[in-house]
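Q: I have 281 residues here and want to know how they pack in 3D. Can you give me a structure?
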Amino acid sequence: MTGGTGMRLIVHADDFGISESVNLGIVDAHRRGIVTSTSVMANGAAFEHAVALARDCPTLDVGVHLTLTEERPVGPAAAGLVDASGRFPPHALQFAARYAAGRIPLRAVRAELDAQIGRVLARGLPVSHLDGHQHVHVLPGIAGVVAELARAHGIRTVRYPAERVRGYMLRNIGNARRLAEQVALAVFCALSPLRELKRIDDFVGFYFGGRLNEANLATVLAGLPSGRTAELMCHPGDDDPRGRYRHWDYSWVAERDALSSPRIRDLVLARGVQLISFRDL
């Protein structure tokens, strides 16, 4: 390597277990590219497929992607957590509104998240960290539950998704809502007990969430500070035109290809970045 920046980077793929196409894309981006870590959804439709892939790919670091939106619960459905169809609220905004209105009891949240962690551990996967689908794990009250569960299960690290505002984020006024959500997320983090746990120095990837093509990825990597440890969140996947999550409008394939790009690999090497995982913290 050249440059000697002292920078350490975790490249983390979310949503392992949500579908077979996403699972395959994550493993591909690890084997051919710069992805070092992922987190599995215990209630994902392709959970068992993800477990099998993880066992076959022990170099891929694995955490638990705690999920309280869109999917079905792992534990017994509790009043307030699910709708009439047995599913969680469709998005974090709906979840947050119901939670703020006092319609989601913390005891039910704790039982469900504990069941999700337990299901992953029961499959024999070594869990190095926790994070949250759509970042609901940082909401006031829920963050305390997650911190408690991390300690109870001996899990040292929880994602701290406080992405700082950088210059390139101010160039497109069309992304103002995304930027506002990013700032709100950082505020939740600063007020949460998660700040007291072991965590990385910097988090990036929310601003370009679902749109981390090669150009955007190069922009993010170029803006990372030297001498620090950062997590880069990404969403690689294989093509799945009939998949259940088309409404997200994510560029899974573009992210997979960007993360496996020789140009990106050269950029990482030129900056002297050390690729690590949560296991290395």
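Q: Anything worth noting?
A: Residues 8-280 form a domain with the TIM Barrel fold (CATH 3.20.20.370). Strands lie at 8-16, 37-40, 61-66, 127-132, 157-158, 202-204, 229-234, 274-276.
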